[in-house]
Amino acid sequence: MTELLINYLHFSYTKDMEVLKGIDLHLKDQTTAIVGQNGAGKTTFVKLLKGLLQPTEGAIQFNGSNTKDYTAANLAEHIGMVFQNPNDQIFKSKVLNEVMFGPLNIGQEENEARDKALEALKKVGLEDRLEKNPYDLSLSERKMISIAAVLAMDTDVVIFDEPTMGQDFAGKERIKEIISELRSLGKLVLCILHDMDFAAEVFERTIVFNQGNVLLDGSTRDVFSDENVLEQAFLEQPHVMQIAKNIGLDGIYTTESELVAALERAWFD
What we know:
InterPro entries: AAA+_ATPase, ABC_transporter-like_ATP-bd, ABC_transpr_CbiO/EcfA_su, ECF_ABC_transporter_ATP-bd, P-loop_NTPase. One of its GO terms (cellular component) is ATP-binding cassette (ABC) transporter complex. The chain is of the alpha/beta class. The chain has three domains: 1-78 and 155-170 and 178-236, Rossmann fold; 92-154, no CATH class; 238-269, no CATH class. 40% of the residues lie in helices and 24% in strands. Strand 7 (157-161), helix 6 and strand 8 form a beta-alpha-beta unit. The radius of gyration is 19 Å and the shape is globular.
């Protein structure tokens, strides 16, 4: 079982500004959304998990070993991260080469890296763009390239930073399928999100960050039903919950299908 144990995690970019203020979390099993306003500490937190930053105080254990004992390159074999802006991640002139770079860099043989890259590009719907320059493609397609590049590395932990950015309905549905498949393979999936509807529909667990602290952590259904805490974090409930409340429907609903089923019961009972 893949797990991350975070103990008393602090981080400061400068002495006068503490970004994370003693985070304690145990991440395992469940797909997990990390939500909160800009500046809450979400991206800093996942960069620490990835080894791109080092804690000011406290520790992160990956499967029982302190991540300080890993180099960033070693940790890359186990923890993959899709950045919010794909332009920060893409630098090759051909799509296939871009997606193969990560697997090759962590020691996969060229044939294996190519097979993994082709499989990943098929999952994101870009199998016909192999020879294209990524910067000739749209922002949403570049985002899919960066997702494919991490999928091809086949890491134990996959972190997404705003994966739905720039995606239309079809793109979001594809990302849902990818997350579901990763979950079925036993991967630990973490995702930073501002899209509360996507978080409510897709993730089993939700963690609310606010001003460098964990304000709330629990099942997604329970977290999004707690209006008072969400207001403290300047977050809104998913639209399905808002609709149910506005029409006077009792219960907690995280997906459109749940809401429709409840309406049908109310109408026909």
